[in-house]
Amino acid sequence: MNNARKNSIRWLTWYPEPVVIGGALVIPQGLLAQRKGEVPFTVDSDARKRIEQIAMQAVINVETRLGHTIKDVSMEKCGWDITSQPPSADGKLAQARHIEVKGRAKGQSTITVSRNEIIYGLNQTDKFILAIVIVDSHQGPYYLKKSV
């Protein structure tokens, strides 16, 4: 055995017991929200799906009333949920609006935006719109441009 190997073994045996140099306390976000009296994020997938469908329909209704042509692209995972094409003006095709829809139950304090949605929002700030709908109280949609 060479000297370097002997020295490394000697160093390892120098401390007969492990030494703790740090620690972490992990607290579930749902527990914190419950303790604060907040309405936690729903884990019920049927409830989440219903909330998203109501929010999507609210945005589609508003965009249709504005005279825009709507395409639901939510299943394509492209970074937004609805492509809304405004009518042509002065013979020029208007720029499409890419709308990410977030539906929330009343009392929820957070909105989760995926990595893909954030990247698209940053790269296409002129087209990207975040639409927030509070479904229980029929509030919104609230449109946020340049929101990410």
Average pLDDT over all residues = 80
Order the strands across the largest sheet as they lie in space: 1-2-3-4-5
Given as residue ranges, the uncertain stretches (5+ residues, pLDDT < 50) are: none
Major sheet, described briefly?
Answer: 5 strands, mixed
Q: Span between N and C termini?
A: 59 Å
Number of helices: 4
Oligomeric state of shown chains: single chain
Structural class: alpha+beta
- CA-based gyration radius: 25 Å
Q: What form results from the Cα inertia axes?
A: elongated
Strand segment tally: 5
Order of helices and strands: HHHEEEHEE
CATH class call of the domain at 43-145? Alpha Beta
> Which fold name corresponds to the CATH topology of the domain at 43-145?
Trna Endonuclease, Chain: A, domain 1
Strand residue content: 15-25%
CATH architecture of the domain at 43-145: 3-Layer(aba) Sandwich
Give the % helix.
25-40%
InterPro entries: NOV_C (IPR024975)
Protein name: DUF3883 domain-containing protein
Organism: Methylomonas subterranea
Domain Protein NO VEIN C-terminal: 51-139
What does this protein look like?
With 148 residues, this protein is an alpha+beta fold. It has a domain at 43-145: Trna Endonuclease, Chain: A, domain 1. The chain is 34% helix and 20% strand. The protein has a five-stranded mixed β-sheet, sandwiched between helices. The longest helix is centred in the middle third of the chain and has 21 residues, at 45-65.
